[in-house]
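Suppose you are handed a protein chain with no further information: no name, no annotation, nothing but its sequence. What can you learn? This example shows the usual starting point.
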Amino acid sequence: MSLVASVEEPVGTMTHSSLAIKTSLVVRPFVKWAGGKGQLLPELSRRLPISFRRYHEPFLGGAALFFNLYNTDRLQHGAVLSDYNSELVLCYRIVRDQVEALIDALKQHERFRLDRDYFMDVRGWDRQPDFAQRSPLQRVARTIFLNRTCYNGLYRLNNKGQFNAPFGYYKNPLICDPENMRAASAALQTVELCVGDFGELAERVEPGDLVYFDPPYVPVSATASFTHYTGQAFGPDDQRRLAQLFDSLMERGVYVMLSNSYTPLSRELYAAHAVSTSIVWASRKINCDGRKRGQVEELIVCGYPVGT
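A reasonable first move is to predict its three-dimensional structure. Written in structure tokens, the prediction is:
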């Protein structure tokens, strides 16, 4: 007998007009993401251009900087958020368009938040032949539930594209924060959400736009590599292609900011071309060896003079 609670997709959903008024609640990311930028927001914020047109973020993750820009009323010209991970982008679309239905679906999962057998059953959905037939709402509720209950909130896929992060053994994981979920929905109402490679950004940016690149980081060692967010590794060739795009956008008059690990490769790719390169400290917990977690050096690279 399956341990999985059925998730019915309600007929009614929250309309855009009902979320048109900006909430006064400070919006936070609704998914946990390896390398999330919550702790670096002060460093990133003080390096933002004084004014910019449309905002673009092609490595979506938890979208901490996007939500910060929304909270501080800096998205006057709209935003385009994208990622190669189609399941992640689907999460943002459902939060934007069907937030009340999603809250109800997550409440059904929430009853089993401490049950490892239930976690394994839900995790196994993508091994089943009918996974593609599940509704977008069901898949998103699954993704968020797994994100909140798996080890370290790690979104990790195997080579077959199947979610394989282990159970997290948390004492009281928060599966759904309805107030923040509704606030996130309000923030996303006018946002364009896209699935695709970061290179597609070149076709839609214009001079004066702001682009923030937060790619899978260059590994700091051979044993610290984690780049499998989509079932495909983000390797050195991708890092070089990203650096070329950074240079191209900078030459076109686009405000470009990027964060990455402080490694010989990242220094090689950006030191000679970027206008401003800064070393900052961040706390990282992704390493499976607890002795290797803690404060690490990271790069913030800007293609424009900071303060302009």
